[in-house]
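Help needed: design a sequence for this.
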């Protein structure tokens, strides 16, 4: 086992580099945790598109009903 002799300045610089490395590692871990794949985005888009299509059909149906009511005579 080799013993490394460091001056206080070398030790401080080494400690600063290790601290910076640890911070960068933590930031990368957070970024990976929040990472979203393209497949996940596509799945959400399919769900949203389906919901929008359903809403468009509902609006169209309601418009048809309103038109039918407006065309009825008011006897």
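Sure. Designed sequence:
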């Amino acid at each position: 086992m080799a013993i490394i002799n460091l001056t206080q300045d070398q030790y401080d610089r080494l400690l600063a580099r290790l601290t910076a490395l640890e911070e960068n590692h933590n930031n990368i871990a957070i970024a990976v945790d929040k990472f979203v794949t393209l497949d996940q985005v596509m799945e959400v888009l399919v769900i949203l598109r389906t919901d929008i299509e359903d809403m468009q059909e509902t609006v169209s149906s309601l418009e048809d009903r309103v038109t039918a009511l407006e065309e009825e005579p008011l006897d």
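The chain has two helices and no strands.
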